[in-house]
Amino acid sequence: MQDDRQLIDQQSLLEHLLELESTRATGVLTIGDQDYVSHFRIADGAITAADWQVDGDFFLAQVVSSELVQERVLKKAVRRSKSRDQHLAQSISQEGGPLPGQFRDLMRSVIQEELHRLASEEDVWWQFSTEGEEVAFDPNLLALNMFLTIQLLVVEIAGRREDDAFLERLFPEPGDVLVPNESCRRYFDGATEHFEDERAVVVLIDGERDVGEIVAEAGLPEFRCLQLLHRFKLDGEVRSLNAAELVQVATTFKAKGRFDKCLRLYLQAEALGGESFDLDLTIGGIYETIGQQDEAYDRYVGFADRCLNSGDRKAAQEALQRALALRPSNIELRERHLEILDPVADRDRYVRETRTFLGLTKSAQDHARSERALRSLIVVGHAEADDIRTFITLLIRERGAREAFNDLRALALELLGDDRFGDARGVLEAAAELRPGHAEVLDGLARVYQHEGESERAVDALDGLIRALHNEDLSETERDTRIRAAQARLLESAPRHPVGLTFAAREALAKGDRDVAAGHLRTLASVHREAPDVPRLTAVLRKLHALVPDDTDVLAELGDCHFAAGRLERGAEAKRKAAERLGGDTATARQAEVVYRDVLDRMPFDVDALEGLAGLHLRSGDRNAHRRSRMRLAATLFALGRARDAGDVYAEIAEADASDAECVRHAAMCYARVRNAADIGDALKKLVERLLERGDRGLADALVRAAGRPDDLVALVDRHRAPAAAAAPTVAPTPPAPAASPAPTPAAAPAPTRPAKPASPPAAPKAPPAAAAPASTPKPTVATPEPAPAAAASDAADPIAAAKAKLAQLTGKKVEKRAPTPAADPAADAIAAGGLKSDFEKEKKTTAIPAGLKASIAKLRGLR
């Protein structure tokens, strides 16, 4: 070990000590000079024992020289220690002397002095070993449970040499606010001559002063004060306040008017709390109080930006209002504030802010922003006549007469769409001045005048509309239709004019006569249907459905309108509701089926429609139709990637009739795609139980393997395997009768099979296809030779071989028998054992998804 000794100077010693502290090394540190060698035990980044290789009781000598213990107490303690064979520190405490904590402080100082002396000497060598000869450390130090943090030693040594490179790395932050723990009481309860410096610092640690304030008020040298604070923190006698505590203390200083201190605490809490504290408004308010308006403004605006990004419009609005109070003439800031105000819920404030914004833009001659402000006033219905004239003037000046007219026309249509006829009037009249003979403007004016009861003006507008339509570039049919409509509106007796019907329906609703209003809306719907005008027809049907929600014809037609507009989901939802109501009555069940099939013609992968159709067939008692619907539902679910749900549906069908080999095969294929056995429902368990009850243990075992061999199903199969192995089968099971109709593959419904051609005259006639076989056809019984005992024993021992044999019997396929081998993938092995993989691949190849439905499939998968 002598060869491992290294010469070391003070800088290297400090670096090595910090390395031992950071790595939490455990071992013995040996430091020697020309006089003698010192040993220190290192554990968890601290010195826990020491030995100086000196003659006599070193601990006793230190106690005597420190004068911690009276002479008579020390003598009694020494006698007690020798007579009872216990440590001197313990004996001194039992004789009424100082507590072990004070002796630990004493020995800590001794170790610090020794290491500082060695660091100051030349030709000092050191070594650190995690194994080797045992060192007999001072037993009194061991009894004191010494724990001297290495970092404190580095602070002590570096501080005496004023080595700032180490001090800056270790001392606490000057802004930390400290609070004492109960353990600090010992500095006040102990002897007064030993802890003067500690008391001078601890008395200032009150949870309100930070490190800088404590250093300034302690009356000690700065380094000494920092050294004590560092030691207190490492020993766990003081701690720094967390973010929540800093906010609480800052609030106290705010109430006292100490805004400088309050601001420092809030900023420190913000830095510690990160995103968990929203202190921007509070800090901005303090900045504003102390006169730092620029800092306050930046805080408010930055907080508003973060709130808008997170969707908190209310908090952003408050922050922008505070910023506007500081800079009321900032046009950009007011525009941002207007953008987040709700013109409906906060209408009055929106109008006031818009007026203020309009005044600023006029003063700045910002015509573009003035135009937007005037448009906002018109849209919310608070524009005066002068505002409309100014808006039109600005519009023409900035964009020209042509674009101004188009803008006014679009604005008027928007207002008319919201039934705001009064606001639309001024805009339409201004547009009519720019283009006096425009048909659409005249039509809008006629609607406005008719709504406001100005019959003469309405007649003039409609008369001008008829003349304008003759000059419009329209097809002959469209022109005639619109002219006839305008003429009908001129006649009060015209019962089928849209405006008249709309007005009549609104009046009936206002009077509370819902039946009359519904009659007008039905007539209006027929008008739009004949036009055809799908958007207006859709709007009328919505209103009509609100009046007569039980009318299935209205609901079904509303679904057709949604389909025509490309809103497939809404159309399917409306038609499904109509079918559900029709299906509740036996008399209208056929109509419900037609509606369901119409939905499926447009959206073949609509799972809800397929379920509704299956339920309809179930209620009607048509078992074959119900089976076909459920099979198509399962295939659709599989095509949408919902293998578990498809397997459950196939399993439910097979659970009702366990001889349905096709559903059993499809269920196995679906469950084989579900890798997580916990995702497979109770339907599989029911199917396995049915198969076990009728003796199909091999097929049951294959399904269990396809499901990933869950424990409950494995136990279920094992319970049936032992008695089954003992009994040899005597009669082969009867194969199932041909299915009433071909089952769809898991991907999509199959194409109908073509009937077989008649055979030649001499030959016997062929059997009719499976689709034509009646449901009541008896199942033929096919006798098979009794298997040999050895084969029976082999099948019982090998469930995969049994599953192959059973599936060969059910499906009519020849399956080659092979010796069982362990399967790396239980699901794939189960499919291969039953001969199912090739069937699935064949069916998968025949599955084709229409190109026009890819978007619907993608959308449905996204909603899954």
Short descriptors:
flat; 6-stranded antiparallel sheet; two-stranded antiparallel ribbon; disordered C terminus; single chain; mainly alpha; 864 residues; 64% helix; 43 helices
Topology:
Elements: E1 6-7, H1 10-23, E2 27-32, E3 37-43, E4 46-51, H2 58-66, H3 71-84, H4 88-94, H5 100-120, E5 125-129, H6 139-143, E6 148-149, H7 150-160, H8 164-170, E7 178-180, H9 186-189, H10 196-202, H11 211-217, H12 222-234, E8 238-240, H13 243-256, H14 259-273, H15 280-289, H16 293-310, H17 313-326, H18 331-340, H19 347-363, H20 367-380, H21 385-417, H22 421-434, H23 439-451, H24 455-471, H25 476-490, H26 498-511, H27 514-530, H28 534-547, H29 552-564, H30 568-583, H31 589-602, H32 607-620, H33 623-639, H34 643-656, H35 661-672, H36 682-693, H37 697-706, H38 711-726, H39 789-797, H40 799-811, H41 826-833, H42 837-846, H43 854-863
Antiparallel strand pairs: 1-5, 2-3, 2-5, 3-4, 4-6, 7-8
Helix pairs in contact: 1-7, 2-5, 3-4, 7-8, 7-12, 11-12, 13-14, 14-15, 15-16, 16-17, 17-18, 18-19, 19-20, 20-21, 21-22, 21-23, 22-23, 23-24, 24-25, 26-27, 27-28, 28-29, 29-30, 30-31, 30-32, 31-32, 32-33, 33-34, 34-35, 34-36, 35-37, 35-41, 36-37, 36-38, 37-38, 37-40, 37-41, 38-39, 39-40
